[in-house]
Amino acid sequence: LKNKAEKFEKLKKEDPDKAAKLRENEAWSKALQKAQGKKIKDDPKLLKKTIKNINFKKKSSEKTWKERIKAVDKAQAERQQKRTANIQTRIDAKKNKKRKKS
């Protein structure tokens, strides 16, 4: 939107008639789009607000995803620890069984 405004100002300085025609064509195209029911996104305040909202959602999503990964890693480590403990108890039980036999 800023680039469009800058280009228009540059054109206005170089050729005012062409700039006026361009502005009129844009106005007509916006009017036609509104008549067709399309949404025209040219309000800078709303665009900034939307961008800010999108960035906020991205950050919150990233935060929740990191928390989820952390929780999954923690659960996996706990399962692995439990598994190794169970394997060790089985090994110890086998050793004790062999000692009792001999």
UniProtKB/TrEMBL annotation:
Entry's Gene Ontology cellular component terms: nucleolus
Which one of the record's GO molecular function terms can you name? DNA binding
What region holds the Ribosomal RNA-processing protein 14/surfeit locus protein 6 C-terminal domain? 2-100
Q: Which GO terms describe its biological process?
A: ribosomal large subunit biogenesis; ribosomal small subunit biogenesis
One Pfam entry for this protein is: SURF6
Please, which domain of life does this record's source organism belong to?
A: Eukaryota
User: Segment Disordered: which positions?
Assistant: 1-20, 74-102
Q: Where in the cell is it found?
A: Nucleus
Coiled-coil portions: none
Per UniProt, the keywords (alphabetical) are: Nucleus
Name the record gives this protein: 25237_t:CDS:1
- Origin species, per record, is Dentiscutata erythropus
